Amino acid sequence: MHSTPFNFTSVAPAVTAEIELLAPAKNADIGIEAVNHGADAIYIGGPAFGARASAGNDIRDIERLTRHAHRYGAKVFITLNTILRDDELEDARKMAWAVHEAGADALIVQDMGLLMLDLPPIQLHASTQTDIRTPEKAKFLQDVGFSQMVIARELDLRQIRDIAAVTPNATLEFFIHGALCVAYSGQCYLSHAHTGRSANRGDCSQPCRLPYTVTDAKGGIVAHDSHVLSMKDNNQTANLDTLVDAGIRSFKIEGRYKDMGYVKNITAHYRRQLDEMLERRPELRASSAGKATFNFVPDPDRNFNRESTDYFVTGRKMDIGAFDTPKHAGLFVGHVTKVAADHFEAELDDADTVLNNGDGLTYLDLQKELVGLQANVVARLPGQANRWRIEPNQPMSELKDIRSKPQLHRNRDMQWDRLLERKSAERLIGVWMTLSDVAGGLRLAVSDERGFAAHADALLELQPARDVERGVAMLREHLSKVGGTIFSLTELTIATSQPWFVPASRLNALRREALERLEQARIDQREILPRAMPVEPPAPFPEDTLSYLANVYNQPAHDFYLKHGVKVVEAAYESHEELGEVSLMITKHCVRWSMSLCPKQAKGVTGVQGTVRAEPLVLQNGSEKLTLRFDCKPCEMHVVGKIKKQVINEAMAVPMTFFRTRPAPQRAGH
User: Fold this and answer.
1) Same domain, 640 and 591
2) What's the whole-number mean pLDDT along residues 597-617?
């Protein structure tokens, strides 16, 4: 009847690194479900100043999310990652303190001016907007107090390794899934120049998704109405192991504007991928506790996507662009076979595919433009396993070129949507229990997979069980009832001197008290992420002159760079001091390369990289004209243009205080 309690700490393999799955949340409810579906950390906007302008959240919701996340040891990071005007700094400082008091674990920051303020003792993470492409920039950010940093999406494995080599005290974070911004983050001013909506302030109008006609220096058309700045979506599923080997520890999913179904599905997909990796690699473990199980099979292709690419991680590729359409075509299902006055028929590729009323269907018209429709009523044709009649929600005459009998895709599956609207995951923490004798009664000791422990005692007069076998079964039955908690029973050890008879009510109360104490111990002893202290003397910035590309929009940010050895600091583009033609976007994507027009791709071209020069191209959308210039040595493209007078005039009409290097212009009549 005696047995030794299971000691999981003695058999656990040596862990050398923790791996974090970092999921987005538009709101607290989505964040809670991301935790339930296996996220180790959540990033979410606070009340203001996040790089998704319409994805803010009340402090009470932040508190609700952190309370749930911390039950599993998961973290909550707050996006305070826009550039700030001087007149916004005090509100930003107050918000930082408010989210800290609500339990947030870290602030994600772009604006270096914040480092000059009285911030709470909360960990700082460098936003993707800080444009971390070089070891020098990464080391600098580590040395000024950033504990985690999102390095550029455009880096390859060698570049990631080079950064990891010089940042031993920082966690490297990398986007593994979602929409790709074509520009280096923080290096796009196109939206602001044309509309006054600044990407650096969370309000990008996404001009990169528009169609452009591309012409060469002689006026010849290279591409007509093509979405040449629109990228496919990021998917690093195949590269997770190599990214870990290169030094990535936090795997980030894009999507703070995305809906609940997207976050559930994509989080579950990568949780499964990472769990499989952790099974193979015992030197790694998840950064939070618990195992998530799902009642659906995650499939990233079912969510909005523009097809997928792993971008530059494994080298430059031709097919990174979503040039035909920036929309979501969906999964291929079959072909249109017949068109009638009020419906059409389709033959599905797979007889097991089932259409539903309300499904979203798409096809390409003869000009290769995506046409979408909603299926109001669908019905399988009698005796035809894979032939369907579909009545759309609009007149057939409005469905352009459907009589050409195009391929049919589905971009919304109502059955799938309904599945994800319900409870779709459960996350439980493994727990070990040991029942033993103590003076005057029994003790139930509990410990979990991360080493947290607690116990509860039941004071009662012990009576031997009349039926030994039944007595043991009763003890096990009632102590094993952990349903309704965050725990799952891994092992129960009965270590009493003999089987005792204990009333079921006393066993249930003992179990509840022990588990409640364990959960409280997890909260009381949870890891508080430490704030890294900047090195002294202040680390020098890698450059001594900063242009508008440094995004300095307030006086403390200017002072920060002076403190770190910079001699000349120009104002941010949003300060409207760059009125002529400048680079409005810098990107690793090259239109010439993607269209096989790069001089280096020409037959017989050899030599040192950088000796070849590419002629500019022109982009045109309506009356908007932009110039593409090619910097061939680093293999980068610049989209060049200038700010509209209307944007300047509208900004001058609103009282604002921000960093300038030149006198403020006077408004008409002043």
Assistant:
1) yes
2) 67
Which pLDDT belongs to residue 385? Answer: 86
Residue where a domain terminates, one of 500, 524, 548: 524
**In the chain, how many domains are there?**
4
CA-CA-CA-CA torsion sign (603, 609, 610, 614): positive
- Cβ-contact 474, 423 below 8 angstroms: no
Q: Which H helix or E strand runs over 178?
A: strand 171-178
Range of the domain at 646: 181-231+578-660
Rounded mean pLDDT of the chain? 93
Domain match, 136 and 285 both: yes
Q: What is the Cα–Cα distance from 442 to 498, expressed in whole angstroms?
A: 12
The encoded tokens of residue 95 equal: 């918000």
Name the more confident of 385 and 231: 231
pLDDT beyond 70 at 88: yes
In whole angstroms, give the CA distance from residue 318 to residue 309.
10
Tell me, what's the pLDDT at 13? 58
CA dist 530 and 532 (Å) reads 6
To the nearest whole percent, how much of the chain has pLDDT over 70? 95
Q: Choose one of 375, 390, 421: the last residue of a domain.
A: 421
Q: Read off the amino acid at residue 633.
A: K
**Alpha-helical regions (H) of 481-638:** 504-524, 555-563, 591-594
pLDDT in tens, 483-524: 999 999 999 999 999 999 999 999 999 999 999 999 999 999
Alpha-carbon Rg for the chain in angstroms: 29
Together in a domain, 77 and 215 = no
Spatial distance between the Cα atoms of 55 and 404, rounded to a whole number of angstroms: 42
Sequence-ordered strand ranges (E) for 27-70: 41-45
Contact assessment for residue 269 and residue 298, using Cβ atoms and an 8 Å cutoff = yes
Q: Is 119 helix (H, G, I), strand (E, B) or coil?
A: coil
Domain assignment present for 669: no
CB 652 within 8 A of CB 667: yes
CA-nearest of 34, 17, 36 to 26 is 34
Asked if residue 249 and residue 197 are part of one domain, the reply reads no
pLDDT on residue 663: 85
Q: Give the pLDDT band (50/70/90) at residue 669.
A: very low
Listed residue (348, 351, 347) closest to 338, CA to CA: 347
Q: Where are the beta strands (DSSP E) in 289-369?
A: 291-294, 308-309, 331-339, 344-348, 360-364
Q: Are residues 269 and 340 in the same domain?
A: no
Q: Are 455 and 516 in contact (CB under 8 A)?
A: no
Say how many C-beta atoms besides its own lie within 10 A of residue 310's C-beta: 17
Residues 164 and 191 in one domain: no
In this prediction, residue 355 has a pLDDT band, given cuts at 50, 70 and 90, of very high
- Per the CB < 8 A criterion, the answer to whether 90 and 116 are in contact is no
Is the pLDDT assigned to residue 2 strictly greater than 60?
Answer: no
